[in-house]
Amino acid sequence: MLNISARRRNKGTLELNIAPLIDMVFILLIFFLVTTSFVKETGIDVTRPTASTATVKPKATILIAVDAQNRVFMDHREIDIRAVRANTERALAENPEGAVVVVADTASSTGTAIQVMDGCRLAGAANVSLAAALPEGQ
Question: Would you say the pTM of this structure is higher than 0.85?
Answer without folding.
Answer: no
